[in-house]
## 1
Amino acid sequence: MSWLTLGLPAGGPALGIILLVIGIIILIIPRIINYLIGIALILSGIGWIMAGSWLWGILALVAGILVMIVPRILNYVVGIYLIILGLGQIIASGFALGLPLIVGAITLIFGIIVMVNPGVLNALVAIIFIIQGVLLLAQYYHWF
């Protein structure tokens, strides 16, 4: 059993309720997800250093501390990543009209939106958690 499942059934109502609660908490306190990621980076860095991987450990520690000091920087990093990914997909598609070009354009647009309004990323993550929670509950209770 993976530690990510927390011992809960993958499709049970408990997981759906947990996702709903997490999504609502993120909507109420949007920056909490940035702090949780910062803490995860710090813990990962400590683990990597203890395992002997000094370079990745120090990088993760520095990134975690930076995210804890300036939480919004994480949103900008994701925005830049989406822009680079979108441009790469557009270029790789050879500008031929098709699915890769459309996905690249959408990814590029989302990256620009996140750069202009970084707070929207946290709201999107919260909405995704809420939708996943509702879908798990709907599947468990046979609503569809």
## 2
Amino acid sequence: MVNLKISSQNISLKKWNSNDFDLVLLKLDFTNDITINESESSIIYVKYKQEGEFKENIILKTTIDNRELKIKEIVSPTLKAHNDKLSVHKTVVNSIEVTVPINFRTLINTKSCSMKIMSPFSDIYINIGEGKVNLNQKKIKGVINSISADIFCVNPLSKLLITSKAGFISGLNKSSITPNLVIKTIRGDVSKECFIN
């Protein structure tokens, strides 16, 4: 692990051998931007960047449980509550870039963020409250559960099963084929590009 402090940024770099694990679980409740890239090797690599006045209040904690690599953000145990009326205007901006092998089981849980999936992963599971998910590859296999996050696709070749209670779904075609990617949303929209095959 390498920790760098560059002016108003903290950058943390970590890596592991994926052969030592069956899955990686990311629980990121304070991150604004998440990017998931394909690793060209068996290395899992994490680059975590923090900015803002209260950046030291959030810590990226890593635990290993059996063969599960768990990476999660926690509030610092040394956090002191301030009676500062202007603290609502003070920001923390966290971003993370995670690089994993393409066939590696990856689970992501987040409350609110912008997420980019940059490779055709075959075993990815995403739970997101709000924000957006950009699927920037043609074939992705897994599940996306969203409360109100919008889903955007780039020329997908994946067979999709999409359900929404109140969101807008454009271009939906019913199919009896087993889907590669299941998208479930309550209020999120799914872009029409998700249906172009």
## 3
Amino acid sequence: MVELKDYVLADNARLIGEQSLSESLQGIFIGTNKYLFFVPVNTTEDIRKTRKGKPVEPTFFFKGKPVSEVIHDFVNRRGVSVAELEDFLRKKIKKEIPKSQCCIINDIEQFKVYSTWWGSGVLINSGKGKAGWKPFVSRFKSAKKNVKGFYQGHTKLVR
């Protein structure tokens, strides 16, 4: 697998809580041509509890290891295919970390990737009901251009 060709990965992404901002999760965004994934690493509450200057301890683990380490190790492993990555995230990670999110791109009407000086993220439009656009993930930080570039030309992407 080759990053930015087969998949895109952004650390420090944020999933906004449905009830309130205090339910937000910080984690990793992984995108392929078929799926959008968000895997939480920390809760906003745990980040706030950490004193300035001290590293934030991970909240979510996969088989005893911090989930961010597991994902980075998996994508850097030789010989792993995109299908294996997608299955790993959809089945194994989702089973152990239920707060993980997976969006099948073919199941949505369209999506937007925005990357501006004031923010970045992915909005999805399921086309069902009056819900319209809703955020999937926000804040890619330094990876925002990579995420936007990866999805450039995708058939479901709206500019």
## 4
Amino acid sequence: MKARKRPSSSLRRKQLSLIDPNQLEFGIIWQLYEYPFRLRAGDVIRFNDRLCYVVRVNDCAAVVIMNRPVRVFKTRFDKPVRFQPSPAMFRISPASEVPILNRKAK
């Protein structure tokens, strides 16, 4: 049996190169100069008249958390109890047309 030889360093360098020198004009077309989504992580938005916080954004969804209202009720012994539920997490489109409250206008 023969052991496989590693390709020469010049051949390895050509394999790792992702840019074809004959098609440099296409590199200009595919470069994105601005952020592709409307929402960004850390944005504070208004959704259903409630304040929400954008946790992360990827190409298919923006993960948003929204605080739930405090629940106030009385026990059987007439003691008032306040209960703060955990925030609701949901996903919306990263290109949603929701008002962004904490970003400065250009």
